[in-house]
Design goal:
Helices cover 78% and strands 0% of the residues. It is built from four helices and no strands. The chain has helices at 8-24, 35-54, 59-85, 91-123.
């Protein structure tokens, strides 16, 4: 097992990615390769950046990849809002995923803050 697989944030993000994929599969066929493809790439980026960051040695590098994962997560949510605006998904479907987004966001922020404190301590701050 790789260390990132034990992270609760990784496990929850992985579940979020799966649910985003399932929701994106309900898009009209003509949108699965435009907005749908962008959503899939951004969703996978969440877990991929957590995994890549966990393989880095310095806390500063780890923070960088956590921040990218956070940005990818907010991008996915924004794109799902656009899908909702275009009536590809229902508001209720997006609202059902909102708690997962919120929980992953909190965990990413917590992990980032923990590593940031470590960096500050190493600097003697």
């Amino acid at each position: 097992m790789f260390s990132f697989e034990n992270l609760k944030v990784y496990q929850d993000a992985r579940e979020l990615v799966k649910n985003v994929y399932l929701l994106q599969n309900t898009f009209p066929k003509e949108e699965r390769y435009a907005l749908g493809d962008q959503i899939r790439r951004a969703a996978v980026s969440i877990t991929a950046n957590l995994a890549e960051g966990s393989g880095r040695q310095s806390p500063k590098e780890k923070i960088h990849f956590i921040e990218i994962a956070f940005g990818s997560m907010t991008e996915v949510f924004c794109e799902l809002q656009t899908a909702c605006d275009l009536n590809y998904i229902k508001t209720e479907q997006l609202d059902a995923l909102r708690p997962q987004f919120t929980e992953v966001a909190k965990m990413l922020s917590g992990l980032r803050n923990s590593l940031k404190r470590q960096v500050d301590e190493d600097k003697g701050l």
